[in-house]
Amino acid sequence: MENKEQYKVRSEPFYQAQGDEVALYEAAYNARLPVMVKGPTGCGKSRFIEYMAWKLNKPLITVACNEDMTASDLVGRYLLDANGTRWLDGPLTIAARIGAICYLDEIVEARQDTTVVIHPLTDHRRTLPLDKKGELIEAHPDFQLVISYNPGYQSLMKDLKQSTKQRFTGFDFDYPDAALESEILAKETGLAIEVCGKLVQIGQAARNLKGHGLDEGISTRLLVYAATLIKNGVETKAACRMAMVRPITDDADIRDTLDHAIDAAFG
Amino acid sequence: MAVEATARSEELEGYWQRLGCRFALVDAVFDECMKEALTSLSPAGLDAYLDNARFIGKMGRGAEPLLVYLEDAPRVAVLVGEQSLTDLREFAYYMSTHTNFKAIVPFLQTCAAAAECLPTQELFKQYVELVRDMMDRTTGSVHGHHTTFASPGLPEMLKQVPSILSLVPLGGFKNWIDYGIRYYNDHPERQIEYFSLQSADSKAVLQRERHGTLFIDNERKLDLYLRGLWQDPEQLVPYSQVFDSLTKPTPYYDDDGIRVPDVFDDLGDIRGIERYRAALAHMAAHRRWSTKMVVDNWSPFQRLGVEVFEDCRVDFLTMQRFPGLRRLFLALHPIPDERLLDNPEASAIRVKLAMVSRAMLDPDYEYKNTDIREFANRFHEAMAAGESSSPEMSRLGLSFIARMRRQSDLSPNVYFQDTEVDYRDDNRHLWIYLEKGDDEDTLFEHLDIKKKEEEELHALPPRHYDEWDYSNQSYRPDWASVYEMKHPGGSPAKVDALLEKHAGLAKRMKRILDLIKPQDKVRIRYQEEGSELDLDIAIRSLIDYKAGSQPDPRINMSHRTDGRNIAVSLVLDLSESLNEKVQGSGQTILELSQEAVSLLAWSVEHLGDPFAISGFHSNTRHDVRYYHIKGYNEPWDDSVKGRIGAMQAAWSTRMGAAMRHAGHYLKAQPADKKLLLILTDGEPADIDTRDPQSLIQDARQAVKELDRDGIYTYCINLDPKADEYVSDIFGRQYTIVDKIEQLPVKLPELFIALTK
Ligand SMILES: Nc1ncnc2c1ncn2[C@@H]1O[C@H](COP(=O)(O)OP(=O)(O)OP(=O)(O)O)[C@@H](O)[C@H]1O
Ligand SMILES: [Mg+2]
Cα separation of B181 and B15, whole Å? Predict the structure, then answer.
């Protein structure tokens, strides 16, 4: 049996609630309902789950999904070793055995034949069949499945199957409003709140351009990066350009506009 | 089509007859020209095109003017409006009757290039005026004779127009012309050298005029600026001051958009682009914070006073929001000289206003006048409490004028020096005059007319759909009646011509389409179990194993056939607003939609996805019309093309009902993935619904219902103001196409991106 403790979140992660999501999540957990968190990239989905795992004092196992991932990467596989073969549990199996919260990050990235393995875990059965091993695992009473999903991909092909979607309770995340987002930056990085407010202002200018040459605006994550750089002594405007503008676009006109927004905000 | 290359279709033959021309050269290109004209001109424009062409053909100057007109005029009309179809002919005729007929062809040959650089009706007209003026001044009459001789420089100059206009603004072009005329009007040879841009001084003068920042080079940047920093989607429209070089260019805004000069020079070390941004910031700030004031009873001085305080208020708020603009604003703001106030002979009213303006914005401004100080303090007190307001500023402005008036202010000798604030607009938007009066009675007349049209027969019995009532959070059962009917058909020629027009684009797209087209077999690598051994991976794993490290067990691959299983329904908004002309193009939104839909249909046909097209509009909830244009399994053939070609726009946009009806069919499709694309130019609305939120919320609800049925809805929105509501309805599943002209290119691209 794996050691539960190693998967516990050791110290309290900083999470700034945007609404009543903490209470709602607790309710979902108490009923052991599977949860889906939706929202644009870098808006705090992963941080939220980490915080909830800490608050509920449950182990958290996170899997970053990608398109080469197969069902075996989730449930486990036989490995070859000197004496023949040996079964190794995958992260989903471990979570089901020890009663962890299993967080499948960016589930849409995974192929659909992979996502179906979670189905029996998400309905009343709460079981996980290990076909190759011939074992049927009953999920531990504490086990819960959480998936994250960024609807901003704007591709039909990267949408989740209805039969998958309909197994989850949903949380919609978005970038927080200006005041709250500034507070998050300040608390997360220790940078003065006024400076954080300006970073947020620039972030919002970029979000206004979404659909006009930008696919996504500047995420909270990038704002945190910029704040961290500034806190560490990097010159303010240079930090903004490096963390907030360069990564998101190669379009010269948009760069120029955002560079100007930086100058306008900081003087 | 290829069988009878020489025979004209009946339609084209009709046009040819109207042209009434016998030149073989024209005959050879006529069909091509007509195809372009048919796709880019409105019916009225087409009439003007043919009538004016006929006139040019009969001017007695041979085939060439007519040829060039036929080829280039539609492009000009698209860029600067269809009025130009007649303007071009009139000017060509003017040239021909003023002995300058040799210049007709160069003029017509370069007018499309000129229109590219001067893309508004107003600018293009000014260009033609300049050419006319140059011609009049260089066309000479010999003393005592009745004969006149043609302008030597004109034909040469016209040939240079494309390169000149891409380098200098219209004002620079005028100065260059003036110089040439001043020095070479009496030397035909030298004049030719000058205007053909060969002589050294000609090049030097042009170089001298090449300064500043041109609007056309920065249009997108400025659009993004306004949108990004101010969330303001308003159109920017350039204007030129060629005929008024004395007054300083002052930006302004009105119903046509935000008007800015076509060029801004650098001012000291401030670049032109910064002047544009400062001016836009100031206007955007007015648009955000200013309210209109009734000013019938105010004297001109009082208006001057009020506007300075209001300008300062919005500047002050702007600098609070964007401290970086403080430097720019102050650098563009004069520092008035207080000593000018001492002269009892001259009016210093403008100086006082500029002083108080500077004092309000610049804490470091040094001056002694205690009245000014008092008003600056009162201003700061008002601003300390919050945003203040236009009325509060008007009270301050009026009492400032009352306090500062002197007899000398009426003196005709006014100090202007150092009193103008460069980035400020002329504030025409601030004032309301009641006297002139807009008559409000006519506003509601048109509503009655619609009633009459109700008796038209409906083909199928209606289907009823619930509508979401957001104020009660419940459905109104069977609220909207949807009548479905086949869209009337027409000739496929129009759509064929549209496709031909975009043949180049279609070719490029075909290459992309071939890439995403389902292959019979798709290889899936990295499989633990699969149909075949993947040798590359297997060998790598073996090496890993032999080397004692953990081998990758996913050494097989398998095949999947035909990965694409998508059904698509395209729903077109056919409401009245589609009849509007797209700014800067001769086409209506409807016409551009026809092009876009044709290209999309062609693409999807190529991919083989089941694809349906329908259109809708509504006239109250009792009459939502849903037009069948193409069914899922109907081939992309002449009857479908005919329906697209015959599409017409009228009435309103009850989007929710139409989406539900389209969803009703899409749901029944057997595909894995279902995509409902909706193309619209505005928000949902109908004449029986006052609350604008009501149909927006219903559409949002419809999207949710569709999502529950496994349908992915995506909106392509052509409304520049869509940011205000589109995400409420569609979440993140939308795109706003800013440049509607690009829709034909964008729509298929979007489809490909969505389904890749
Ligand atoms: N509400 C919040 N409280 C605290 N920190 C936050 C919050 N929202 C965002 N952050 C900050 O933003 C960063 C990015 O958040 P996170 O990694 O949770 O994003 P995400 O939504 O999971 O993004 P992705 O979809 O790209 O995985 C966090 O590391 C944290 O610094
Ligand atoms: Mg994450």
Answer: 43
If asked whether residues A168 and A182 sit together in one domain, one would say no
* B569, B665 contact by CB (below 8 A): yes
Radius of gyration of chain A (CA): 21
Task: Indicate whether B486 pLDDT > 90.
Answer: no
Does A166 share its domain with A189? Answer: no
Q: Are residues A81 and A30 in the same domain?
A: yes
User: What CATH topology corresponds to B493-516+564-755?
Assistant: Rossmann fold (3.40.50)
* Residue in B220, B221, B229, B611 to test binding to A, most A beta-carbons within 10 Å: B229
Q: Which of chain B's residues have a Cβ under 8 Å away from the Cβ of A155?
A: 753-756
- Rounded to two decimals, what is the model's pTM? 0.67
Q: What pLDDT shows up at residue B446?
A: 35
If asked whether residues A8 and A24 sit together in one domain, one would say yes
Q: What percentage of chain B carries pLDDT values higher than 90? A: 43
End residue of a domain, out of A172, A204, A221? A172
Q: What is the DSSP string of chain A?
A: ---GGGGS--SPPP---SSSHHHHHHHHHHTT--EEEE-STTSSHHHHHHHHHHHHT--EEEEE--TT--HHHHHEEEEEETTEEEEEE-HHHHHHHHTPEEEEETGGGS-HHHHGGGHHHHSTT-EEEETTTTEEEEPPTT-EEEEEE-GGG--GGGSPPHHHHTTSEEEE--PPPHHHHHHHHHHHH---HHHHHHHHHHHHHHHHTBTTTBSS---HHHHHHHHHHHHTT--HHHHHIIIIITTT---HHHHHHHHHHHHHHH-
- pLDDT score recorded for residue B167: 84
CA distance B279 to B285: 10
Q: CATH no. for residue A32?
A: 3.40.50.300
Whole-number pLDDT of residue B147: 59
Cβ A193 vs Cβ A186: under 8 Å = yes
Burial class (CB in 10 A: 0-12, 13-18, 19+), B606: middle
User: Count of domains in chain A?
Assistant: 2
Of all protein residues, the one whose alpha carbon is nearest to atom 8 of ligand 1 is A44
CA angle at B108 for the pair B103 and B113, rounded to the nearest 5°:
120
Same-domain pairing of A168 and A184: no
B300 touches chain A (CB under 8 A): no
- pLDDT, tens only, A147-173: 998 876 656 666 777 777 788 898 989
B732 in reach of chain A (CB within 8 A): yes
Residue B675 three-state SS: strand
Strand, helix or coil at B334?
coil
- From A117, A138, A172, give the residue that closes a domain: A172
Within this chain, do residues A143 and A190 fall inside the same structural domain, yes or no?
no
B405 φ/ψ angles, rounded to the nearest 5 degrees: -55, 135
The domain in which residue A146 lies consists of 4-172
Give the CA angle between residues B212, B214, B218 to the nearest 5°. Answer: 125
Residues A165 and A214 both lie in one domain: no
CB contact under 8 A, B229 and A77: no
A66 touches chain B (CB under 8 A): no
Helix (H) or strand (E) holding B45: helix B43-57
For B579-608, write each residue's pLDDT tens digit.
888 877 778 889 889 988 998 888 888 888
Q: CATH 3.40.50.410: which residues of chain B? A: 493-516+564-755
Query: Left if phi > 0, otherwise alpha if psi is -120 to 50, otherwise beta: which for B388?
Result: left
- Closest ligand 1 atom to the C-alpha of A14? 4
Shared domain for A129 and A110, answered yes or no, is: yes
